[in-house]
């Protein structure tokens, strides 16, 4: 996966570029991250990258000429590096809500150019002319698009084949089936009198799979019933959920 990042604070992206699963993906070349900083395209003495909003009002916007130069440079490089036109993405509270399905879409195929806004955002004409898609990580406002950009890149990068240790861990990710995850346990077998569920110690892999699926279904029913709306459960899933509800009601 190739990602070009347009940001005034490229060093923030060390958080994903140099640590953990994403850091390893970058060092192994499975994910390529390149950066363009609008400030590098500033020509005035103060190297300004923000500008005043027409119509007045509080705050500033990102300066048009330096931002456009950075976006165009990233676009060009994307085409050079991958032979494909990139999808230019802008993170903003006005964008399409990122979810696991969206992450899957972003992970496969086209190179991405991700634009992280600062100040009060960017000129609408840039959104119209240079941005292909607006995405949001949730209904809240942050001081910049860098953290949302890292969330989007991380969610997509971990789905790139070979990035996760053993591929099943992405497949087993309950959101993969659109369900919440089941509870997880590791040593010791008992913590303050709380024991690991016996089924997980039994070695019966079929029982364990069913227990985990039942827990995922039950938790989803309890915490996020909306995820079950309009979803047809298999006969097995229906049975397991009914069992969970019966036991829960007891
Ligand atoms: C006032 O900030 C802005 C105003 C407009 C656009 C971008 C920004 C940068 N901030 C962001 C960016 C994305 C998200 C999100 N929900 O994905 C939250 N905040």
UniProtKB/TrEMBL annotation:
Organism superkingdom: Bacteria
Domain tRNA methyltransferase TRMD/TRM10-type: 1-229
Any one GO CC term of the record: cytosol
Pfam families (alphabetical): tRNA_m1G_MT
UniProt keyword rRNA-binding present: no
Catalytic reaction equation(s): guanosine(37) in tRNA + S-adenosyl-L-methionine = N(1)-methylguanosine(37) in tRNA + S-adenosyl-L-homocysteine + H(+)
NCBIfam families tied to this protein: PRK00026.1, trmD
Family statement drawn from the similarity comment of this UniProt entry: Belongs to the RNA methyltransferase TrmD family.
Protein name (record): tRNA (guanine-N(1)-)-methyltransferase
């Amino acid at each position: 996966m190739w990602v070009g990042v347009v940001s005034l604070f490229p060093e923030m992206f060390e958080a994903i570029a140099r640590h953990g699963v994403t850091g390893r993906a970058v060092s192994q070349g499975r994910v390529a991250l390149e950066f363009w900083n609008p400030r590098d395209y500033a020509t005035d003495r103060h190297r300004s990258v923000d500008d005043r909003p027409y119509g007045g009002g509080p705050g500033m916007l990102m300066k048009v000429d330096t931002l456009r130069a950075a976006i165009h440079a990233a676009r060009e490089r994307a085409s050079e590096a991958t032979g494909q036109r990139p999808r230019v993405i802008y993170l903003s509270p006005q964008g399409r809500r990122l979810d696991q399905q969206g992450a899957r879409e972003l992970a496969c195929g086209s190179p991405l150019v991700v634009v992280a806004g600062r100040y009060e955002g960017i000129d609408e004409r840039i959104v119209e002319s240079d941005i292909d898609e607006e995405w949001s990580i949730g209904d809240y406002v942050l001081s910049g698009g860098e953290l949302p950009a890292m969330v989007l890149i991380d969610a997509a990068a971990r789905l790139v084949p070979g990035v996760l240790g053993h591929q099943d861990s992405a497949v087993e990710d309950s959101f993969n089936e659109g369900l919440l995850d089941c509870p997880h346990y590791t040593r010791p077998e008992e913590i303050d009198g709380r024991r690991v569920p016996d089924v997980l110690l039994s070695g019966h892999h079929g029982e364990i799979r069913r227990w985990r699926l039942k827990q995922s279904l039950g938790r989803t029913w309890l915490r996020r019933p909306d995820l079950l709306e309009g979803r047809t459960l298999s006969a097995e899933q229906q049975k397991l959920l009914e069992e969970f509800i019966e036991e829960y009601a007891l």
